[in-house]
């Protein structure tokens, strides 16, 4: 348009070369204006949400003079002039959301996206609440239940630093052990995120203290302490001959016939070997005066090739288990380290029958890579960039009977959460189940290949093996409200949050802890039952920690 007006005005009045020069000047100015002076509307939001949820809309508009006014149309007849509004949809459907911005110069621009609104989950298919615990838990922050060897007791710790034992048949509390008892010294700080493991003799190993003053306890099946390890420089957690500041993160202690192995995320964190009978440190992993940078976030796990593997704040480390089986309280150098750059690895890991280790690491922003490494050498077999979905959280990876690797994802911004399935051979994505909900725990695989998981909305799902259909679902908080639980009145539908991972008993019972988002001190342990679930998959690693006892060991 500018070209035509200009040529008409200047025709017959200027030589041809002057016209060309002027047109070039106008064209450059026009391009410059498009790049700098014209605003561009843009915004982020979740692609899916539930009826009656408050959906966040965030303007990411740019260009123009930056002094914008906003006109939102949410597609359901409601509008807003806020920059970053929240909106609640009352009905299920697909809505076109429109944002019109106007800058201070009067220039406007429009941007549109669609959002799918789903009905809230009440109950779908065969899935029901079996029992709630007879006592409260505190907030759950990554810790997961463990079953006794005979399946009669279930153990869980929460953020009050108390380990509780419940009858697995009805949820009645059998005993509790307070890991924050002042008689144990300075009280552990921060979350209690470690998951208990159960030895062959019934001993429970559990640690606490994510933010410092961490301690590892050995507790017998009746709730009596056998020993505890702490920051003693001589025979507690290692810190190059000085008093340590142990921090026990998302890991699980591993035991064999003589030793217990536990990772420390604290000052000069490391992997430590303790004598099972005394609780004294007898070996530790370090290269010279240094433990793995960032300490141990997750692990250890043990491969059938005799390697112990941990995830740290600086990659993945492997050490021969045979070298950690010693009594001279000396350092054992790690055999290999994968991923040199500082990238957080705190999703739980899985190991297959070939000694390969599968994990996830953040690579910046919301991007991450799922990886497969050779447990014996640390060589990277494959990596798969996951950049079109949510990110890793406190969840992790498991393995199906055919070797398929499954990982959980937390919804982030307008990127969906859910479950992703990958080929163990090359990391190619088989399918991705997208959800507006965050899956912050590790899924579990049952005998028929179903994928079981809870979400931060408090819903529990059973997904079919092809990743297409939800075959059963339950709003667990709503189920508690309608149950005979003594705590039913403390709950309302959608009032729960799963920051814990499910385990599956041999009889098919599903155990998981749920946080009460209105009052975290009123959280509960629950058992769920479904005729679809007969027991865990017979795969190498069907749930967090490999099995309900969290042995984390492939033999």
From TrEMBL:
User: Where in this chain does the record put each PKD domain?
Assistant: 38-117
- Gene3D superfamilies under this entry? Immunoglobulins, YVTN repeat-like/Quinoprotein amine dehydrogenase
One Pfam family hit: PQQ_2
Query: Known SUPFAM superfamilies for this protein?
Result: PKD domain, Quinoprotein alcohol dehydrogenase-like
Query: What protein is this chain from?
Result: PQQ-binding-like beta-propeller repeat protein
In its keyword annotation, does this UniProt entry include Signal?
Answer: yes
Q: Which PANTHER family match?
A: CELL SURFACE PROTEIN, OUTER MEMBRANE PROTEIN ASSEMBLY FACTOR BAMB
Family annotation (CDD domains): PKD
- Lineage, please? Bacteria, Pseudomonadati, Bacteroidota, Bacteroidia, Bacteroidales
Which keywords, in A-to-Z order, does the entry hold? Signal
| Segment forming the signal sequence | 1-29
Whether Plastid counts among this entry's keywords is no
